Known about the structure:
- This protein has helices spanning 33-38, 48-53, 57-62, 66-70, 82-89, 120-130, 148-175, 196-209, 229-238, 253-262, 271-277, 318-322, 325-333, 338-363; strands at 6-9, 12-15, 18-21, 44-47, 76-79, 96-99, 102-107, 114-118, 134-136, 185-190, 213-216, 244-247, 266-269, 280-284, 294-298.
- The protein folds into two domains: 6-269, Alpha-Beta Barrel (TIM Barrel); 276-363, no CATH class.
- The protein has an eight-stranded parallel sheet with strand order 3-13-12-11-10-9-5-4. It has a three-stranded antiparallel sheet with strand order 6-7-8. Strands 1-2 form a two-stranded antiparallel sheet.
- By secondary structure, the protein is α/β, with parallel strands linked by helices.
- Helix content is 41%, strand content 18%.
- The mean pLDDT is 93.
- β7 and β8 form a beta hairpin.
Amino acid sequence: MHPPGELITQHGRCPLPAFFPDGTRGVVRAVDAQDLERCGIPGLVVNTFHLTNTPGIGVIKSQGGIHRFMGWPRPIISDSGGFQAMSMIRENARYGAISDAGIMFTNVDTGRKTKLKLTPEKSIQIQFALGADLMVCLDDCPHPQAGHDQVAEAVRRTVRWAKRCKTEFERQVTNRRLSPGDRPRLFGVIQGGYDRPLRQRCAEQLLDIGFDGYGFGGWPLDASGRLAVETLAHTASLMPDHLFKYALGVGRPENIVRCAEMGYQIFDCVLPTRDARHQRLYCWDAGPDHSLAYSFLYIQDKRYRRDPRPISENCACPCCTHYSRSYLYHLFNIRETLSLRLATMHNLFFYAELMNRLRARINRPVQ
């Protein structure tokens, strides 16, 4: 069976492959929904854990769901909160604890300790309350340096939680009387660290449960900071080709290209927006000829102080269409917030164009 060519949701169709910027807390920093649409962004990713903390799911639900709350009409993916268990708790135990029951987060940064218990059932309930189009099972993400026994335990727990997520998902669909065409999609997450047999064990057990798609779970880079090619390729090979394949957290353009060649279709990362705020801008090395070669422009370099050219002469983003390198240099130099908006729009437009070029390459007839 052929891989799906688009993601169809209640909030529109999304051609694949696609990149979804991270709107973790209900916002893509420095830009609004209209900016994102102008840049050709097809969808966003929000985070269950962070939105539960602030502003609270009750607030979002009272506003009609996450789409209305953000003013965003296109598809939204809701991450489960599982990655925060690794990035927070496994880095520092004072942020909580992980057990078979779920994840207990402790907020110690507000001056008063508050707790949030995130169970598989609670994670799915929250994602339904948000009104997300694509939901992700709560998973146990091991630390990249975890030993074999710790990774095996994370796989066992991930599968156990996935079963509970699927049960709660089906209960929500039934109670809300959602038809197959109206319901959101649910993704299982394949864990296993860099261990091939553990990855296979996790995938086989998740496939037995049955999901709409599968995601690569865990850290996508190796110890040297390079893409964990063998692990990602092996994990992709374990996913059914006729279902969606999601490379969670893969964001560097060359890594997206490599993963798309493996069969992954959905990507998300904070990288393009974070790079924009740090004055690191993406530029195509050639025009719209489907070349994927690019380079970086560091706008804080003094040689751009009087440069009348756009950031990239091969870019049609709102920034490159209207403003010069000299002007953007000036905006960053005086710490004007407009600099963050224009730089962010440029990088996101680049990523949207990257997806266009990838789709053209995939769909190009064989000579």
